Structure formats: structure tokens, C-alpha cells
Amino acid sequence: MDESGRIDARPSPPAYNEETMREKRRLERFQLEIPAAIEFLTSDREKRLLNLLTSDICSGGAYFHTTQPLPEGTKVKMDLVLPLDRLKKANDEHKQVYIKVAGTVLRSESGGMAICFDEDYEIMGAAHTRLGGDK
Question: What CA–CA distance (Å, rounded) separates 100 from 128?
């Protein structure tokens, strides 16, 4: 990310070693379809948005089935949308909660891509403006 907050989608070599990868795979994974808005910059520095569903997720990252996977090393910003109305203990104040997180495409293949989450994240109520300008 540069000083203006823009993400560079040009691939850079992943900074992950085998030990880090083994640790990430040990995290408990959940087979959940969670809506996600994934923002990235093209090689022409044009901002783009993909709306996808996770197919599995853990605290370290998520896998997304897509016919348009991004190149490995692509930096992304994303909003994961948790629909609280579908959870047993729904919060009356908000119908949805957004988890804002950045990450890096770790693996890209013909049927999808794996994104490793950065450690920093924000959790916001439904009043938050989503990536792409939607509320």
C-alpha cells in the first residue's frame, strides 16, 4: 500500500516460508460461504472489485472459488460480511457486521484462490460503507 492508501496489485514474491505455511494450515477451518467484497489494483493502477463467497475460512485466511483468480502475491483489501440475522444470538442493533481486512493472494489456481489475511483488521456495524461504495 502506498502513502495514499492504494494497493498495488502487481505480484510480489510471497514472504512465507514452509514453517509459516504449516502453522497456517493448523488453524481450524470452517466450511462457510461468507460474502466478501475484494478490492485490488490492476497493473494499470485501476481499482477493481470482486464480489465472491468464501468456501472455507479460518483466522489466517480464506479460499474463494472463482474463474478469475488473482495472481499470487496480489495485495487486496476486503470486507467480509457476517449476516447476523442468520446467527442464533443476533444482535438487535445491527443486521450485518463487516470485517475489514487486508491480505495477500497466497495461491492461485484455475478454480479459485487462497488469500492469507494480514494481522490487522476492523469489525464494524452495518452503518459502515462497504468497499465499492455500497452500504
Answer: 10
Give the H or E element holding residue 21. helix 18-25
Give the three cell numbers for residue 31: 466450511
Give residue for cell 502487481.
10
**Residue 62 and residue 116: Cα distance in Å, rounded?**
7
Q: Which domains does the chain have, with CATH numbers?
A: 28-128 (2.40.10.220)
Instruction: Answer for the pair 38, 75: CB distance below 8 angstroms, yes or no.
Output: no
Tell me the per-residue pLDDT of 23-80, one tens digit each, with 9 for 90 and over: 545 667 888 899 999 999 988 999 999 999 999 988 899 999 999 999 999 999 999 9
Condensed to tens digits (0 to 9), the pLDDT of residues 71-80 reads 999 999 999 9
Decide if 10 contacts 16 (C-beta within 8 A).
no
HEC states along 26-79? CCCCECCCCEEEEEEECCCCCEEEEEEEEEEEECCEEEEECCCCCCCCCEEEEE
- Please give the model's pTM, rounded to 2 decimal places: 0.70
